[in-house]
Amino acid sequence: MAYSTTYAALRADRAEHVGLVTMPGTATDGHWRYVGSGHTPGAAVLAAGIAEDIATNREIAPEEREVPR
Predict the structure, then answer these.
(1) 44-48 long-range CB contacts below 8 Å, 24 or more apart?
(2) How crowded is residue 33: how many other Cβ atoms within 10 Å of its Cβ?
(3) C-alpha span between 50 and 56 (Å, rounded)
(4) How far apart are CA 35 and CA 33, in angstroms?
(5) Contacts of 8 (CB under 8 A, 6+ apart)
(6) How far, in Å, CA of 65 to CA of 6, rounded?
(7) What does the DSSP 8-state code read for residue 22?
(8) 22 CB-side CA count, 13 A
(9) What span, in angstroms and rounded, lies between the C-alpha atoms of 30 and 12?
(10) How many degrees, rounded to 5, is the angle at CA 16 between CA 12 and CA 21?
(11) How far apart are alpha carbons 69 and 55 in whole angstroms?
(12) For 3-19, what is each residue's pLDDT tens digit?
């Protein structure tokens, strides 16, 4: 015997299980949409700065190991 279900049925069962009750007059969005990927412009600037710091540290690290202390 095979069983089949939908995401709507799974969500409804989970809501019932955890005690969530749909309030009359509330709206829910049942659709997924793609909103993008990657960094925001501000986060891209930060990520570029971090990448530069990592590259600089990798260049300096071998030199620091050679200096006697």
Answers:
(1) none
(2) 5
(3) 10
(4) 6
(5) 30
(6) 60
(7) P
(8) 12
(9) 12
(10) 95
(11) 24
(12) 778 888 888 888 777 77
Q: Residue 14 and residue 24: Cα distance in Å, rounded?
A: 19
* Tally of residues, the chain: 69
- How far is CA 47 from each of CA 39, 43, 52, 53, rounded to the nearest angstrom? 8, 6, 9, 10
Contact call for residues 32 and 7 (beta carbons, < 8 A): no
pLDDT tens-digit series, residues 15-66: 777 776 665 666 666 677 787 788 889 999 999 999 999 999 999 988 777 7
> Which residue is it, tokens 């095979």?
2
The one-letter amino acid code at 43 reads A
State both tokens at 34: 């793609």
